[in-house]
User: What shape does this take?
Amino acid sequence: MFMYFQTTQLLKKTDSFFNPKMKPNRQLIFCTLAVLAQERKPLECLDAFGATGIMGLQWAKHLGDAVRVTINDINEGSVKMIGENCHLNRMKVVMNRKEEEEDEDEVEENDDTLGTIEVTQMDANVLMHLRAFDFIHLDPFGTAINYFDATFRNVRNLGIVSVTSTDISTLYCKALNVTMRHYGCNIVRTEYYKEVAARMVIASMARAAARCNKGIEVLLAVALEHFVLVVVRVLRGPSQADESLKKIRRLIHCQWCEERVFYKKCHMLEESAYQQLPCDCHGSMPGKTAVELGPLWSGSLFNTGFLRRMLFEAVQHGIEDIHPLLKNLTCESECTTLKHHSIFGPMSHSSQEESGVVIKTLASHKSGVEDTSSASYSGQEKRKGSELPGNAAKRQKGDIPSEHPPFYYSIHRHSIRGMNIPKINKFLPYLTQAGFRVGRTHFDPTGIRTDATLAQLKAILMKYSMPTHTDSLPGIHSHASAEPISEPVQDSTPKPLEIDQPAEEVKPESG
Assistant: This one.
């Protein structure tokens, strides 16, 4: 049984910190592990930064014998807290696997024990160098870049590595010098900065895996609120490492119109890199108009088959909160508008319950209050679906990377001055009718992921927009099917246009 406990104390690096806003992150990771548990079992799983131990307790309590969970934390107070939370959930705590094997008879005789969890206190790099794991989750305080080499050193073939990055100032262009120091990337603030952050983390993971003669396959990349979650599958072999490195390229970004394109797969120098951009800003604007970003991951960010299996596991375990997000990620991976579910509204965390796990936090420990409310996973019940026979170490045939257009455009950022643009859900079919792939993105509620160029998108947007003041423009008529948005996009009301004066485009600020 588990309830969110809102603490009023300031976060310290040495405190056991439980963040209720990270519930979607924990749910996504649980569904990922549940899918992997259907491929082979038992799985050696590591929560490298346990804190309160909530994540590892979810794994052990609801996946049972399919996983062998190790929760690690270098902080002595956190390790003590993890042990207490394990006992609250009737989990036996062992300090090493040898101790577990020696006490197997006692575990069988003790009916009150639901399972066994190994708790360790050491540096995560040391632990991952000493032992091999099938599933590793990294969620350190800040950047996880310092743990990538050790993570890929001993992770097993076809295993999964999930990384939660919370160094938002570094990833979202607020500390460019730190970004260069940690990730070796040159970035600027763009309309698609959240996807740039995800691709930057993936590129760092691919290089770390390649140093261990391993490649990666990206299963999903999510940027919600104040974290970036990346989940990859590890593919052993030098050829797999080479294929992954080929997908790391630099990006050309126009600072006038924010058009962007990855460098072509070519090692030869071109006379002018501006020729690769679809826009003509370099010819019409003075000076240098584009900047080179990266290196970034240029491959796919999602695996449609794996996302569908995650949704299936979410249904099986009764994790209803994550259904809309998984459905949107599936649609985004296919670049389609079908079955879209809104996830952009505010989420209530204080009243939500989670995972049938009882934990203590540092704040409750000090105040003598214990968190004991229940959660809503149906993991205590029997699994509804049939399990795959044997230890299927091979990936599912449907788990192939989904090729989708990189990056997205914000429809409001590219609005036309003096024109009311149609609502975003009304505008998407117009792009489809024009023959382009189109879909929404979880990175930005106003973003559109499409294979159309910015000029083509603006032309269609202009075609289906209507003037702000129709009375002053009697000679201009808009399409009846295009519905205007309720409020003007611009902050200030633009001056009425003359009949013979063309609409002027809004030039976005550079950077």
The chain has a mean pLDDT of 81. The first strand starts at residue 43 and ends at 47.
